[in-house]
Structure formats: structure tokens, C-alpha cells
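Sample pair:
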Amino acid sequence: MSGECISSKRASTDDLPVDQRVAFWGQYNASTLVGLKCSSFSETGFSAREDNLSLDRVRVAHIAGTQHVIERDGSMIRSVPKESVFVSLVQPHRFILEKRLQGAFRLLSQADSCGLDIAEIAYRQGFTSQAHFARAFKAHYGRTPSDVRASSVGQ
């Protein structure tokens, strides 16, 4: 154990103006977790907290906050592949579901998509069950796909 050094670090966006949070988070993660870039997909604004623990060459982060993606670019991975190993305990299914629902909402709201029935829109967004799509859509938006379609046709 000689030569090993344990250190910890904490960061939060809570006290920053909303328009500065993503940039701060990206810069913080790039310096702390080896070259990461941050993108936020939350409609409510970005917010995050992170606790980091370093033990010699192993770094662990506990991250909590609104939906966001932290990624490494290809040049980083090629230049230091050993340091580019990243393990996430967060399942990406919520992010993917949200992106599919956003795509469906967009199509349902566009006048030029009126020729597509709701089942086709669900299928194009990756849903294999129209019933599952309708339940997920209503849970997310508080409206049915039919309601969104009807309100866009009336505009």
C-alpha cells in the first residue's frame, strides 16, 4: 500500500446560474474523469452533484442529477485507451425512451406527418407495441398520442 494516495473531490452545479451549468460540468468532468464532454437533455434545466474518490490510478465517481450524457471523444480514446475505460451503473433505457418519445411527439405535432398513423409513428421510433407506446407517451406527456395529433391538426 505504500505510495498509494487516497483523495476525494466534490462538485455541484447547484449554486451556478442555469446557463453556466453544462459548461462547468463538462470542464469539471474533463479534468477529473479524463476528458469527458457533457450534454444535457433535461427540459427542466441541468443540475448535478458529483463525489469523486481516487485511489492511486483508480477513480470512482458518484453522480446524481438531471438527465445528461457524459461522453469521451474518439481522439481521447485513441490517445489513452487504458484511461478511457468507463463503467456506468446507470441503465440507458430511460434516456433512449425519452428520445423515442420526443421523436414521436415531434412527428405527431407536424402537419406533414398527418399521413402516418400513430402505429407507424410508434414503429418508426422503435416501439414494437402500440399499447406500450401509448402508455409510455401518456405517462411522459400527460396526454395521449391521439390528443397531441388532434391538437396539431386543429392548428
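The helical segments are 18-32, 74-79, 93-109, 118-124, 130-141, 145-153.
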